[in-house]
């Protein structure tokens, strides 16, 4: 049970932090044109990356509490 939990946490953290790095990279690319769909896509990716990182931290804390028991 603990190994499965640890594997899920590692996979979830990798996805969360990669999405955050993708969000930072896309939002720092100033060579993209200012079309409406690109601007909304950049905002969506940044919002998704920040939410995934926050959720990953919360899940890590919960998993740490469960793992210690």
Instruction: Name the average pLDDT.
Output: 79
Q: Number of DSSP strands?
A: 0
Shape call: elongated
Structural class: mainly alpha
First-last Cα distance:
12 Å
- Rg calculated over all Cα atoms: 16 Å
Helix content: over 70%
Low-confidence stretches: none
Strand content: under 5%
Characterize the largest beta sheet: strand count, sense, and whether it forms a barrel: none
Tell me what you see in this structure.
Helix 1 runs antiparallel to helix 2. The longest helix is centred in the C-terminal third of the chain and has 33 residues. The chain contains 2 helices and no strands. The chain has one domain. With 69 residues, the protein is mostly helical.
Short description:
The protein is 86% helix and 0% strand. The protein has helices at 2-27, 36-68. Keywords: Membrane, Transmembrane, Transmembrane helix.
